[in-house]
Amino acid sequence: MQEATATHPEGNTLFPIVLSIVAAAATGVLWAYANPIQLVPGVIQWRIFAFLPPLVGILLGWKSGFICGYLGTIVWSLLAGTFIPAHSLIVDGIMVGLTGLLPGLIFDPARTKFDRNTLIKIAAVCLIVGLVMVVAVSASLAYLGIFPFWWAVMYLGLSDIVPMIIGTPLLVVPALKILKSAHPAGFTRF
């Protein structure tokens, strides 16, 4: 029975689902408590772990990346005391989820060679999806009267986009090696 599992590249399908939920919880906790640099004290921090949704999306699949970003946003907003139902559940959650979904759709480790050009493409995808996310979230915050639009674009861009374009390409290769060594029988991306 175990030999059959090892010969099929599909492997375990439950693994990425469980890991994406664990990553979502970790993402929310890290965003709430491990952001030492305050861009707007008490409101916007430099999210040094903003790379987690795109990284999870690439490694575990686009659905896993979306789960990590969406649930991570909900966990973070509840822990940080910034939960606004319409904003957090709809705009912020979905847009941050897309930062994990799109890189996961574009880059599949089974079909992608992670050379220098690919890492540059990952950074470019993170930049583009990050810009879309920041504009949508800023528009939502401006509509709700929380922050002026351009002010939110500037600070959210610094907060989220910079860590995504640096952290995701920097960590994808070592994270993939760790994941493969931890689960040598393979698994299906979710």
TrEMBL record:
Where are its TM segments located? 14-34, 46-72, 84-107, 119-143, 149-173
Alphabetical keyword list: Membrane, Transmembrane, Transmembrane helix
- Name of the protein in question: Aminotriazole resistance protein
Q: Please tell me the species this chain comes from.
A: Mesorhizobium mediterraneum
